[in-house]
Design a protein that fits this description.
- This protein is mainly α.
- Among the domains are: about 100 residues, Orthogonal Bundle (Arc Repressor Mutant, subunit A), CATH 1.10.10; about 90 residues, Tetratricopeptide repeat domain (Serine Threonine Protein Phosphatase 5, Tetratricopeptide repeat, Alpha Horseshoe); about 120 residues, Rossmann fold (3-Layer(aba) Sandwich), CATH 3.40.50.300; about 80 residues; about 80 residues, Serine Threonine Protein Phosphatase 5, Tetratricopeptide repeat (Alpha Horseshoe), CATH 1.25.40.
- The strands form 4 sheets. A 5-stranded parallel β-sheet has the order 9-10-11-8-12, sandwiched between helices.
- Strand 1 and strand 2 form a beta hairpin.
- The chain is elongated.
- About 45% of the residues are buried.
- InterPro entries: AfsR-DnrI-RedD_regulator (IPR051677), BTAD (IPR005158), NB-ARC (IPR002182), OmpR/PhoB-type_DNA-bd (IPR001867), P-loop_NTPase (IPR027417), Sig_transdc_resp-reg_C-effctor (IPR016032), TPR-like_helical_dom_sf (IPR011990), TPR_rpt (IPR019734).
- GO terms for molecular function: ADP binding; DNA binding.
- Belongs to the AfsR/DnrI/RedD regulatory family.
- This is Tetratricopeptide repeat protein.
Length: about 1000
Amino acid sequence: MRIRLLGNIDVVLDGAVLPVPGLRRRALLAALALQRGAVVDKDLLVGIVWNKDAPSTALNTLQSHVSYLRDLLGDRGVIQYRRPGYILDVEGTDTDVELAENLFDQAVRTTQLTDRARDLRAVVDLWRGPALADVAGLPWLEEQADRLEHLHGRAGHALLETRFALGEHAQLMPELEQHLRDNPFDEQMHGNLILGLYRAGRQADALTAYQRLRTTLAEELGIEPSPDLRELVTAILRQDPALLRPPESLELSGPPIPAQLPAPGATFTGRQVDLDRLDTLLATERGSLAIGTIAGTAGVGKTTLALQWAYRVRDQFPDGQLFADLRGYDAGPAVRPVDALTGFLAALGVAGDQIPVDVDQAAALYRTMMAGRRMLILLDNARTADQIRPLLPGEPGSLVLITSRDRLSGLVACEGALPLPLNALTEAEAHQLLTNVLGEARVITESDATAELARACAFLPLALRIAAANLAWQPHRRIDDYLAELRIDRLRMLTIDDDPEQGVAAAFDASYQALTVPARRLFRLLSLVPGLDLTIPAAAALSGIEVADAQVLVGRLASAHLLDQPASGHYAWHDLLRAYAADRSDAEDSEADRVAASRRLYDWYVEAVVGAADLLYPHMLRLSRTASAHIFADRAAALDWLDTERANLVAAVRQATVPEAACVLADALRGYFHLRRRSTDWLVVGESALNAATALDDVRAQAAARHSVGTAYRCLGDSPSALQHYDEGLRLTRLSGWQEAEATALGNLGIVYQAQGRLKAAVGRLTLAIALDRRIGRTAGLANNLGNLAAVYLDQGSLEAAVDCFDEALELNRRSGSRHGQALALTGLAQAYREAGRVDDAIDRFTEAMQYCVEIGDRDGQAIVHIGLGEVARDQGRTADAREHAHAALTLARDGGDPRTEALALNLLASAVSDPHEALRHNTRAHELAERTTVPRSQIQAMLGLATATLRLGDLAQAGAHAERATTLATHCGYRLLEAEARATSARIHLRLGEPQQATG
């Protein structure tokens, strides 16, 4: 049985020709036949057979087509399933493609002209039309068809040469003339024509044919005929008798097959995603030249990846591979396009004296020589698109792969190149690279140090290889010891002692020196940025230039891969580039310039954060009350900016390069942290500001920092720590005469006393705060402290007093326009109304409060309102709604890291689920969180939740114990509402125990 692909696809079985109906079936048979003897993955077959149009049922349809082909071939064992795909068995079947390839190889090897002519004629005769003619439109098969047609052309060319050598020049004249009309620059065949005419006694026609070729080459390509042709004409003019004797043997002529790829790296690791992306180049549509540009920072492994992939696919390019290192970033001059063309033309068989010195003429000749060829061209270390363009073939079929530190966007835009950005290795890939060099035993022994080494090298392949090489020559040295030195001076340690030009710093030098002077300056100043990334406005502030100019410079740095762009509008760099920038700044910038740059950046951060604060929480007491610029369009834009820049702002305060600005920044961020509850960052910012303020001996700034840190601890439920900072903050406000802050400090102490269950002390502090606010006329502080006093009254069960205070706080906040204040007052009112049984009023207030919380981005406020609405829904029997509110509150609380609110949400969820075991899990977790907070109110609520859960499970003794502890603590602290709830729970338990007297006692 033979499967025929050189023409329409069919099968010859027992002398009968069997057509294969259906495009997909023909494509499937061709794909298997072209890879006969190999397992072809099902997913790959789907891609070949359907390209991008695969239906959702493609795999099932593929199985159906396989079944059909098995029946057609008459032997169901011919196509076998082997995980993960199918294989066409090699026994009892062959293909005309394999026969053609084998015959051509045999013809190339034989020295007998008659045998060679016979084999080549057999190859040519196997074609019944264009290869794979009836599966047009499927890219993979079209690529295979191109390859087969190229083989057909080579066989025909070789057959003409062989027949001519056998003396068949007279019979060949018509074929030669037709061939030359189709291939006017085929000098080898022109030589055969000229020699054939001479042997036929037509010397004048032979010389005319030569002159005609010479004129064509001069006019079209600007070159002379080859030395071999010129020698042939000289021999004709001498009437050399040797010209009349055909050769006894002939080596097949044809274009040379260059193989210029350097050896790939021995320690190549990973990069599977990048290799897969490169594979997409092989599927480039017919009619276009495949171009790929691998771009990335120095040392990221561009050349290594390109060579590794090139070696994997080189067999798909039968006419060979060309390689040129364009040296775009070397210290010396880059390779000129004409120099690269000279090397390529020589490799393609053009004699040195025939290679033009003009770049345009050389490029034209190069495109001519590349016509009809399928080659892989690797252009390494390119710097500009103009360096590349003359080296691009003029016809489709070949593939050009380029590596560069620049994006070469012009090639992408104008030539349709596929951009392939290359990033650092993944953590796993970096670990494997170190393992490959250092050995598995050493890496396992110091696994933590190995992971840290990879991070210290920024997962950059060049840095990893240098570090590994240095360690490999010192097998007894601990990786930890090497790391200790590396942390001191990364750039020095990432250098090869006997080859310093291969070090990380040397690689960065080339990219740095290629920049303009302004771009170099900005790059150096980037080392002063305290955060992980920056925006273009921040870069403009840092360098003291206009935003438009900064955009150009930042774009240039990003294009040169000295900056990455991890998100829209944000630019970052890895630690090795930061170290290199710092090294260059130390060498080239004065201390005064660096200080001025840092101050400009901090001033810009202050202006932006204060501007956001003025929009989001304008009534909050802050250190700086200077008018801010209108940077943000609205509150949403301000909050979004703070969310995005949070890590950079935290880093700026922590580093405190400009301590005065750091103090103002930290204080202006307090309201943001109160809204978003990023407690870890809040503490870092507050404590860093306290250190900076102490170093400055700025008493007000110290008071503000104490206030911020105390509030962060309070939100975490750590009342003792909060109290310590608030007490010291109160002392500092009185020392500095800052009365507005004194009132705030008194109010904060009242809040902590309330949390500790010291309700009388809380009322005392809050009453003092309110009196001071009234005396100095600070409306915002008065409203806030009234709301806090109302919350204490609510805990004490004084509902009427609580409502009065909440009402006054709400009215004051409405007058001042404080959305945050209104949200707090409305939430408090809603809670008071719920306790008073005014459910509809409670829902209205909760709903209005939620609108404000969402508008200002107050996540903890949203969580508290969800809990309130959920409790109302639960009380009304709407348990599904209660669960929905509980889940929403739980998500918000966990996102903000507030254990008190999370515990409240868990208790609500437990009370709204039907499964008592699930309820107990939620209550147990709530109790664990409450115990961590040292807040009695949270602990009481958690114990009540446990009492209810264990009661539902029938564990009356345990339920009673929980209820008793809750009652005792609530009574001691004076939480009258919670005490009432605890006593009601105890009563239910006593009734279940059959103890009615205790239930009413």
